Amino acid sequence: MQYQQSAPRAARTAASGHASEPRADSAGFDALFDESFERMKRLAFLLGADDPENIAQEAFTRLHGRWRSLGGPDKALPYLRRTVVNLSRSRLRHLRVVRRAPKEPNRDIVSAEATVLAGHANRAVHEALLGLTPRQRQVLVLRYWLDLDQQAIAETLGIAVGTVKATTSHAMTALRAALPEEDDR
Amino acid sequence: MKDLEQRLRYTLHELADTVPSSENPKADFERRLVSRRGIRRPVLVAAAVAAVIAAGGVAIPLSLRDTPAPPAAEEQDGDGLVWSRDYDWLQADGGPYVVATFTKDGAAVDAVVWLRDGDLCMAEGHHVGVGGSTDRTPGAIVGTSCVAVPDWPTEPGRGSYVVSRSVLSTGVPDSGPVPGLMVFMTAPAVEALEVYRGDGSYVQPERFETLAGATLYVADFKSSTQGFGYTARDYAGDVLESAIT
Q1: What sections of the protein cross the membrane (chain A) (predicted)?
Q2: Cα angle at B123 between B118 and B125, to 5 degrees?
């Protein structure tokens, strides 16, 4: 393992000045905000966050601070997705007593979402989703709501494509087990 | 299977459509930016980092003390994980995070952690020109030390899934301004990290960032880090790696 002092790099960076002004070129950033804010908010919601608006705002705030260092506008949306996933997960962590097997969904979230869905035909599917692990739910939401391919899901979650495949498979198995009648249709 | 996939897709879209559109999200965003640019701001992320390096490198603890405990209410409401804009000029890939604040020569000093160019770095963050005040004017980074994010193993037994460091330590266990505070970095395959003191008692690690290449945790031992251990589990709950230092 490498361990090094890197003060020279820090000094160089410091000399470049503080980022006290907005970095984003406003046209590109604004367009992305307008196009993607609601989508990112809904992504946070589907991942179980109880404050999706705040998470979407925070994700764009972080993006704003890194706009110039992202390496291209094509990196912005993946960065947003990653940030929303991570923040949603962090938020859930605060809301839930997590130890080894975080299989039990947050009661408040379940309650709120169940209320919203009451009377909807796919309530059973949704409840089955809530019973999945956070990672399984993330994979399914990214695949079946955002329509990301496996490579994009892997990049978003920071895991291998093989892990995406395995997680998807486990998640679908769990859903089938929770909804046996659905699979028989 | 196809039917289940279609039902799943339909349910997710239906559920997403229940979320009402925001009235003026851009205005809220602008207000948030302005508030972040404020000179005085609270430490939003708690805990701390120090630096004791366990020889051999299975686990490297980071520790910081003198550190006011992070206000739980701040941590649990609002922004959740928040990186520090005080040091945003570092242009990090992850962070920078103020994981602790301590007093040095009468002045408030931050313990700052960030990821950049494949390195996990930490340093003292000094606020320029404010003497012994608690003004949080962005300032200089001092005493940066970095460790490379390793090539993570592709399967258990082929390398370590976990790297640990003490925050701002002098290289001796439980030294530095925040002894007892450690940062852990885990491979993407790790879903859960359990940390234990030398006496076997559990330490709750706080996950504060998950990036494409690594996940960062901070753990405040509130006592000695010597003999600490950890267990890393994958998403299925299986043990990927377990170690006692």
Answers
A1: none
A2: 125
Does any CB of chain A come closer than 8 Å to the CB of residue B81? Answer: yes
Residue range(s) defining the domain that contains residue A71: 25-95
pLDDT one-digit tens code per residue, A12-45: 222 223 333 334 467 788 999 999 999 999 999 9
Nearest by CB to A14, from B15, B82, B141: name it.
Answer: B141
Do A18 and B89 meet the contact criterion of CB atoms below 8 Å apart? yes
SS (H, E, C) A62-92: HHHHHHHHCCCHHHHHHHHHHHHHHHHHHHH
Residues A115-153 pLDDT 10s: 454 445 577 888 888 888 888 999 999 999 999 999 999
Q: Which of B151, B146, B145, B106 is nearest to B126 (CA)?
A: B106
Q: Are residues A46 and A89 in the same domain?
A: yes
- Contact flag A100-B235 (C-beta cutoff 8 Å): no
DSSP string, B3-26: HHHHHHHHHHHHHHTTSPPPS-HH
Residue A149 in domain: yes
List all residues of chain A from 2 to 21 with a beta carbon under 8 Å from chain B.
2-7, 9-10, 13-14, 16-20
Q: Is A125 part of any domain?
A: yes
Partnered with residue B112 across adjacent β-strands are: B98, B123
Q: Which of B19, B89, B145 sits opposite A14 (nearest CB)?
A: B89
Reported as half-sphere exposure (CB side, CA atoms, 13 A), residue B224 has a value of 8
Chain B partners of A177 at a C-beta cutoff of 8 Å?
Answer: none
Of the partner residues A45, A87, A157, the one whose CB lies closest to the CB of residue B81: A87
Residue A168 placed within a domain: yes
| A4 lies in some domain | no
A58 and B80 within 8 Å at the Cβ level: the answer is yes
